Amino acid sequence: MSKPQMNWAAIDADPRFQALHKKKSGFLWGLMIFSMVYYFLLPIMAAYFKSVFDTKIWGPINFGLLFALSEFVVAWGIAIIYAKRANREFDAMAEEIVKDAHKIGG
Amino acid sequence: MTGPMKKLLSAGLGLGTALASFGAFAAEAGVGDSHRTMTFLVFAAIIGVTLYITYWAAKQTHSTSEFYAAGRSVSGVQNGWAIAGDYLSAASFLGIAGLISLYGYDGFMYSVGFLVAYITVLLVIAEPCRNIGKYTLGDILAFRNNPKASKTVAALSTITVSTFYLIAQMVGGGVLIKTLVGIDYEVSVAVVGVLMLSYVVFGGMKATTWVQIVKAVLLVAASILLVMFVWAPYGFSLPSFLQGVVDDPKVQAQVAKVLGDSAANMTPEQLGQRFLEPGLLLKDPLDQLSLGLALVLGTAGLPHILMRFFTVPTAQEARKSVIWAMGIIGGFYVLTLFLGMGAATLVGAGKITALDKGGNMAAPLLAQFVGGGPDSMLGNFFLAFVAAVAFATIVAVVAGLVLASASAMAHDIYVGVIRGDHATPEEQVRAARVSSIIVGVVSIILGILSKGQNVAHLVGLAFAVAASSNLPAVVLTLYWKRCNTGGVVAGMLVGAITAIAVVMVSPNMTYPLAKIADANKVLNGEPAKDGKPAKPGALEKLTGLQAKLATAIEGADKEKLTKDIAATEKAIKGAQDELKKFEGQTTSIVGLEKPLIKLKNPGIISIPVGFLMVIIGSLLYRDKRAEEMWDELYVRQNTGIHAEGAVAH
């Protein structure tokens, strides 16, 4: 299977690829930073704001337990948000570039 | 089926029968003697299914792409289950449930990191790696860096990480099977090793994938079933279930025991509620951050997880597989809350720690309880089933690890570095199989040699090395234009060495002086200090108890005293054994009398070091190829142009 030579620099410089790059990186790193901050809130709160975590909210269920469960919901939420956006937008943009790839700069 | 394959398959079956005969000599096992036959039937059924899968997969495994990547024909959903099967080790199934059963909330906090880790995998690693990778971590790094140098360090790191993980699994598996069904430790390790070898050597990635899928389905099914039994009596209401936990005297007693003196003024209800609050297990916040960092960044650098993304046909399927994996893994960890809390109330911490101090037997004992207890048929069937699922878990995880190490050895080192990428397809497959056998045999030997060692910190170390070595190199290769060979080599070596070195001087190691001091404290007690009253030693206590027994009149008193005497004698014997073991030793294996640092988890030091070294190394080193290849790498990882395709069948 021989792969045709591509002009990678030209594709990289193509405005459509640049648009994909900008949209995707901003979105990805934003989600990544948010998820890290949200995750590390759990051990930090448990260590330094224990009384907040110990506050009972719903019967014996305290805020800390709800917060731990919310970590699951947030993680799943981020996964779904990313997948939706990627399936709808990023894949289509990449598809456009792939279609014309051998023509760009050639 | 080829000749040697038949031989190995029958060897596997032969070992299965050997299990049955060895079982007869078992003592103090979890399964009652009368139900041993049933246990072996359940084990045999699961082993039979996996060997059939291997037979079926072997017929379709001829090329390197089939051996390492299952022909890239695994679907996203299938791969999601396989990732879950690869990731949910016995440590998470039995270990986390156990920690929750003993320490409540803090045990559950562990679970969160294992799921959040997949955000990193999803957003940063899965799709780019699928688009530019082939079979190994080394392939990704060799894309723009010097192939020989980057493949060598990648293979070294892969083998290091996988071996740490592997030893922990082998030792954990050996101990687990011994406790549950009473087979000798060495035999258990050998059985796990031979089975895993037959999957990998004959069926390659395809068999490994399907064994992992079957295991994940069994594990999830078993957990759901147990949770049904635990939760149904409370009408599936979360507050009433947890109220039941708070009100349980066994839970209250466990909290009182963990808290010690500070529990003196607490009401039973406060003690029960304390179980749902943080702080019973995790004491040092810095250590927790360090562990969390290693978890959420290390998972994305685990070679056996990375390798799973080469088995799907496209980046879209890779994305789908992470989404599925997150659903399964997250759902499973939510279930562990019920498994752990259920075991805490129904079985009780006392019985759990009697079988295993770390709490690993919580889930199996819970299964036995909900089925009707140790004397019932159903109880023992449940126990046997959970034991068999735990066994399947170990072989599936171990198979993935061996495949990752073998691919690093055969594909990166032999084919890439030694043969300069000029090996024939037949030679490559042969190299892969031979490497698998070498890795498998070495891991069996290491597993047997590590008998009785405390290997719990090895899994943490595997994550830390992956996060400090593999992840910085991969992330910066993928996303930083200036990154090059110098940075990758420096970052991976220094990151890995730092993680290991920090653990070597940490409290995880054994320090004879501290052990001797502890043993002496048990024997001779502690003098009064800082306003605390003096504690009597076990020797003093024993004389007191014996004197009391001599004058005791009532039968109940006598019985209690005899029990206390037996417990005290046991404590004395344990302490004396410790003294004998460490007699004359003063330093740990690296020559330290006491730990240099308080941290148990190295991540918070070694991960920044890893990233920093990749950056410094790249800036100091000039590498034209790495710069020239940047455009191609960046376009290809984002578009999937020229990505390795699926093998048509």
Task: Explain the overall architecture.
The complex is a heterodimer of chains A (106) and B (649). By secondary structure, chain A is mainly alpha-helical. Chain A has one domain. Chain A is 78% helix and 5% strand. Chain A has a two-stranded antiparallel sheet. In chain A, a hairpin with a 2-residue loop joins β1 (56-58) and β2 (61-62). Chain B is built from 27 helices and 2 strands. By secondary structure, chain B is an all-alpha fold. In chain B, a hairpin with an 8-residue loop joins β1 (525-526) and β2. Residues 1-5 and 11-29 of chain B have low confidence and may be disordered. In chain B, 58% of the residues are buried. Chain B is globular and about 90 Å long. In chain B, strands 1-2 form a two-stranded antiparallel ribbon. Chain B has 2 domains: 3-404, Sodium/glucose cotransporter; 514-526 and 535-581. The chains are: A mainly alpha (106), B mainly alpha (649). Chains A and B meet through α1, α2, α3, β2 and α4 of A and α6, α10, α13, α15 and α27 of B.
